[in-house]
Amino acid sequence: IVISPVIIWSWDTVKETTAGEILAAAFVIFYSGVLLFILYFCFSALTDLQKPDERKSDERNEDE
Questions:
Q1: Membrane-spanning regions, if any (predicted)?
Q2: What angle do CA 7, 10, 8 make, to 5 degrees?
Q3: CA distance 38 to 57
Q4: Domain assignment present for 28
């Protein structure tokens, strides 16, 4: 009973949405994804830099 007005209001909003508004929303969603991908790439690169260098530890083990 309570959700019925919400559904009707939401559908009225959807019907009144223009193509320009849909394109603007798609633009925002797309660039949000691009920014999240860039952040993921930067943080994964930073975590790789924090890992100890495995080659150096292998060379130390060979010397011992």
A1: 22-46
A2: 40
A3: 31
A4: yes
